[in-house]
Structure formats: structure tokens, C-alpha cells
Amino acid sequence: MTPLDRVLRLPIWTGRPEVKPLGGGITNVNFVVQDDARRCVVRIGDDIPVHQILRFNELSASRAAHAAGISPAVLHHEPGALVIDFIEGRTLAAADFHDAATLESALALVARAHRDMPAHLRGPALVFWVFHVLRDYAGTLRDGDSGYAPLLPDLLAQASRLEAAVGPVELVFGHNDLLPANFLHDGARMWLVDWDYAGFNSPLFDLGGLAANNGLTPAQEARMLSAYYDRAPDAALWRSYRAMKAASALREAMWSMVQEIHSELDFDYAAYTATNLDTYRAALAAFEES
Q1: Which among 57, 253, 256, 288 is least surrounded, fewest beta carbons within 10 Å?
Q2: Structural domain boundaries in the chain
């Protein structure tokens, strides 16, 4: 059954639904659907074991995010399909986060997720520890005879140094995939969507991901850390943060390497891998210089 067939067969439509593809997804296949009652977004995707994506977790996180006022409402779910309310607004791009007000709003939303979502979370919950993810990705790449296999010993050795440098962490409930396209602005407020990788984690992973994925400057990073922790970052915080930022960038690069051998979506993962490897190497250099 095609993704479109799965959308049309959902038992929630009033009248004949009008279905349009929604671009931008690099893990799921997404659609905007308008029926006689409402407009919504349908995310079609099953569990993805190679990325540790379990849809029960995405569902519970999406519901908790809505209850915390962070994400749109879940309207329907069934195996392989999640239907959420449509937000009329603009998907953000990396350049948007170089505006101080936009970055401040995004950081406030992420902090609310960290602080408020656990009170609304029901059922089992996952932990997202990037260094486990990196080791697991390496195994998947070796098993799949990836062309990147010769890079893995050095990358894993670097990851071990980064993990040691992160040190003890506090736990919050993280989004763990802070790409610019996962932020929406409706003209009045910002929303955070797509909870595929949600789980308990260090806040430094989301902060590092926000910086790495959006090309924040060192001055912006300093303001971000000061705002989040309500104090100027000291040398120890900077070192832990830079280590986690580098790990976040490496995870995005290795995620794409895995997609190159496992995904059937029409997307240039090889170019995405190369871009994120460049981001990682720059972040690693900044960590090693600190």
C-alpha cells in the first residue's frame, strides 16, 4: 500500500479529503489533508529500528508537547500514521535563528519542553544518549558494508573523548532533533514539531544541536548558554557544551550515512552527509581548542 493509500484509508475524514504532499520530510512521508471539517498534517512512517525510532514514543511525546502548549494537537493515530492539527505558518530556516528575537523565542520554547513536558508524559519513555546512538550507527554502517566504514575507527575514538569531556549531566526531556524546519511560526508564536527522537537527555544536546544545525556564532552561543542557565558560562560548562555540540553534529552526519544505505526517500543524503561532516569537523576543532 502506498503512503497516499494509507492516508486515504484513515477512518477520520468527513467528506472526500483533498491530499497534498508536504515537502521537507527526510525520515517520514508527510501530507496536508483538507476534508469538510478541518485541515491537518498526516505523518506516514513505521518504526525505524536503525534510527531507534519507535512510534509509540513519538505519539506520547507529541501528546505531552501539546499538553505543554508546545506542539499542535494529535487528532488521530494508528500503526504507521499520526495525524496532527495543521498550523498555518512559516517553517523556519537556519538564517532565521541569527535574529536575536527568533533565537530567544526558540530557546524559550525548548526550555519549556525540557521543564514542562515530563508532567504530561504517559507510559514508557526512552532515553536518548547520543554516544550510544553513535556506537549503534557505527555497527549498522559496518553491517551494511557502508563506504564510510574506513572512517569509523577515528570517529568512534573521537566520540569517546567527547563523551568523557561531557561529564555528569542533568536529565531533561529533550526534543533531540532541533533542525530549523522543526520550528514553525504562525505570526504570533512559535511551535516545535516532530518528536521522532524525543527522550530524556542532557539539555546540552538540544542546545548544541540548535547551534550546530543553525550555524550560530560564538557570541550567539554565549548568549544562549547564559539565558538557559541564567548565568555566564564558565570554562567547565563551555567544555561540556562544545563536546556535546560536536557529538550532535557527528550524530547528524552518521544518521545521514545510515540513510544512504537504508532510506528509500528521494533525498540527496550523500550531500547531506558531506555538509554535516564539515559541521562536525569544525565543532570538533572548536572543542579541541578549548
Answers
A1: 288
A2: 3-85, 90-289
Return the CATH number of 3-85, one of 1.10.3720.10, 2.60.40.420, 1.10.3130.10, 3.30.200.20. 3.30.200.20
pLDDT at 27 over 90: no
CB distance 190 to 106 below 8 Å:
yes
- How many angstroms separate the CA atoms of 137 and 159, rounded? 12
> What gap in Å lies between CA 105 and CA 97, rounded to an integer?
9
Side chain identity at residue 215, one-letter code: G
- Distance between CA atoms of residues 210 and 283, nearest Å: 13
In terms of Cα–Cα distance, which of 17, 115, 126, 24 is closest to 75? Answer: 17
Q: Does domain 90-289 have CATH number 3.90.1200.10?
A: yes
Which residues make Cβ contacts (< 8 Å) with residue 58, sequence separation at least 6? Answer: 82, 195, 196, 198
Q: Quote the CA–CA distance of 186 and 88 in Å, as a whole number.
A: 6
